[in-house]
Specification:
CATH class of the largest domain: Alpha Beta
Catalytic activity: DNA(n) + a 2'-deoxyribonucleoside 5'-triphosphate = DNA(n+1) + diphosphate
CATH topology of the largest domain: Alpha-Beta Plaits
Strand content: 15-25%
Radius of gyration: 21 Å
Family: Belongs to the DNA polymerase type-Y family.
Subunit structure: Monomer.
Number of strands: 12
Largest sheet: 5 strands, mixed
GO biological process, one term: DNA-templated DNA replication
Pfam families: IMS, IMS_C, IMS_HHH_1
CATH superfamily of the largest domain: Reverse transcriptase/Diguanylate cyclase domain
CATH architecture of the largest domain: 2-Layer Sandwich
Strand order of the largest sheet: 5-6-1-7-8
Shape: globular
Structural class: alpha+beta
Helix content: 25-40%
Length: 357
């Protein structure tokens, strides 16, 4: 049996909004929405005061304004957020070189062995959170566990500004009562399929055999079987470069190509919102379609300069749909919009990326 790993997941609390509130005293205690105003803008972040009204990241800004009319809208300043993110990483790397950033505001750390010689992973997590609070005047939540899946689950347990530990002996107590939808990869469609076979909790998911899950969900069935039991062997990979960001959705019923426009617009907005959390910029736009008989069609385009707004990404994605020829009578069950071919942002890219209108 392999040695038990010690993994921490650190998640900054309402990161962009918290940086704005830290740097502008007049915003503290008020509902803050980090977004440009406008019909095509999406929410990059919302303070906890705004979240009480139902405002969430990736939501259209116009909807956020309807939900919280008193919200203060602040345009995003990604240059400043990246600077603070680097400061957070420096604090993490005092304890381990095995830091895997997921975005500007969260990361995994493998502290099976830590540089400071602290006696436990919990002590490391406490030290990191304390340094972030004292040096950066920000708060972070952390989860400590023997693997990445459980650590990320744990960091959500005490948000904001909390710490939760899942020890190996706790797995069979903590996991079973949770909704099955808390498992990564279970989206709306998979959740409905689970509901159809009577599975709402991880405890009920555990009652299914490996064979039953593989029969229902293919290769993902094995992953479900393992995660339901708290098994995750995926290592922490430091400085993994972002390769792609995408969003996809399965329709309630199969639709014609012409009927995919609304979904493409929505998914392009969602994908664009996802790019706001990375220091890299995607150059290639990808449109993915899955037919009713499970054939996958993809179209891609690499413009001379990277898409600089959600509107531009949407426009390219819709133009890619026009390249799907000879399929007029085909029905589709899924559509996806993605960005790939990422590279480091240049100053001109950063300035352009601020404009979402």
């Amino acid at each position: 049996m392999s040695a038990v790993r010690k993994i921490i997941h650190v998640d900054m609390d309402a990161f962009y909004a918290s940086v704005e509130q830290r740097d502008d005293a007049s915003l503290r205690g008020r509902p803050v929405v980090v977004a440009w105003r406008g019909n095509r803008s999406v929410v990059c972040a919302a303070s906890y005061e705004a979240r009480k009204f139902g405002v969430r990241s990736a939501m259209p800004a116009v909807r956020a304004e309807r939900l919280c009319p008193d919200a203060v809208f602040v345009p995003p300043d990604f240059t400043r957020y990246r600077t603070v993110s680097r400061q957070v990483r420096e604090i993490m790397r005092r304890h381990t070189d095995l830091v895997e950033p997921l975005s500007l505001d969260e990361a995994y750390l493998d502290v099976t062995v830590n540089k400071q010689g602290l006696p436990s992973a919990t002590d490391v997590a406490k030290a990191i959170r304390e340094a972030i609070r004292e040096e950066l005047q920000l708060t972070a939540s952390a989860g400590v566990a023997p693997n990445k899946f459980l650590a990320k689950l744990a960091s959500d347990m005490r948000k904001p500004d909390g710490l939760f530990v899942i020890r190996p002996a706790d797995i069979d107590t903590v996991l079973p009562p949770l909704p099955a939808a808390r498992i990564p990869g279970i989206g709306k469609v998979t959740d409905r399929r689970l509901e159809q076979i009577g599975v709402r909790s991880i405890a009920q998911l555990r009652e299914l055999t490996l064979g039953q899950l593989v029969q229902q969900f293919g290769r993902y069935g094995q992953r479900l079987y393992e995660l339901a039991r708290g098994v995750d062997e995926e290592p922490v990979v430091p400085d993994r470069p972002l390769q792609s960001i995408s969003a996809e959705d399965t329709f309630e019923r199969d639709v014609s190509l012409a009927e995919t426009e609304a979904a493409i617009r929505r998914l392009a907005e969602k994908t664009w919102a996802g790019t706001r959390k990375t220091q890299r910029v995607g150059r290639t736009v990808v449109l993915k379609l899955k037919t009713a008989d499970f054939r996958i069609l993809t179209r891609s385009h690499t413009p001379a300069s990277p898409p600089s707004s959600a509107e531009e990404l949407t426009s390219i994605a819709l133009s890619l749909r026009e390249r799907v020829t000879g399929e007029e009578k085909t029905l589709y069950r899924l559509v996806g919009v993605g960005l790939s071919n990422f590279r480091e942002q240049e100053p001109a890219d950063q300035q352009a990326a601020f404009v979402l209108e």
